Amino acid sequence: MPVPTLAKLAGVFLRVGNTTFGGGPPIMAALEREFVEREKWLAYEDYALAFSLARVTPGTNVIAYCVGTGWRILGIPGGVVGAFSETVPSAALAVLMTQGYESWRSNPIVMAGIAATVAAVVGMMWSAVWSLVAPHWRGVHGSFRAAVITGGAFLALWKFGITPLPIIGVAALAGLLWQEPAAT
Predict the structure, then answer these.
(1) 106-115 burial, b for 16+ CB within 10 Å, e for fewer?
(2) pTM of the predicted model, to two decimals?
């Protein structure tokens, strides 16, 4: 796999991490396209592992993901660059936006813009979901297995309010016990 410079890695984190809206999943999906598909700095398996581990860590998942992928690409300096490049600019912007929200919330034009942003974020989140599930959506058995595990995890979180760690544990157990049949 090609190895980027620290500056080039920081540039991708800065560009994607600070221009993608919607929080962790859309940012992680956009970074997956950059790191795995476009630049080929990271194997898909490393992306999926970083995504999964980031989702079960306490705190902000996207920071854990950026540290993990940055570390996997360029070691400790890459992890540090991932954390700071993704967080510092957006944190400063969040502070400024929070200060200005009081004067904006009575403006119907601004509120319409916020509503449209929420709709776009939902689309980006579905894109993140699809990029994670699509590689496992092959063949009748694989598609059924992926649909059951994905749907079950969705229902467990949405309908029953089960926390992510038990859901991931049950999904891992299901994956171990319910494997795809060997090709003959």
Answers:
(1) eeeeeeeeee
(2) 0.59
Instruction: Tell me how far apart the terminal alpha carbons of the chain are, to the nearest angstrom.
Output: 32
The structure tokens listed for 102 are 């009081």
Dist CA 36 CA 51 (whole Å): 13
**Alpha-carbon distance values, 113 to 58, 68, 75, 120, 158 (Å):** 31, 33, 40, 11, 27
Non-local (6+) Cβ contacts of 95 within 8 A are none
Quick: pLDDT tens for 46-98. Answer: 999 999 899 888 878 899 999 999 999 999 999 999 999 988 887 888 888 78
Q: Is 131 exposed, middle or buried (0-12, 13-18, 19+ CB in 10 A)?
A: buried
Span 126-182, pLDDT tens digits: 888 888 788 877 777 778 888 899 899 999 999 999 998 899 999 999 989 988 766
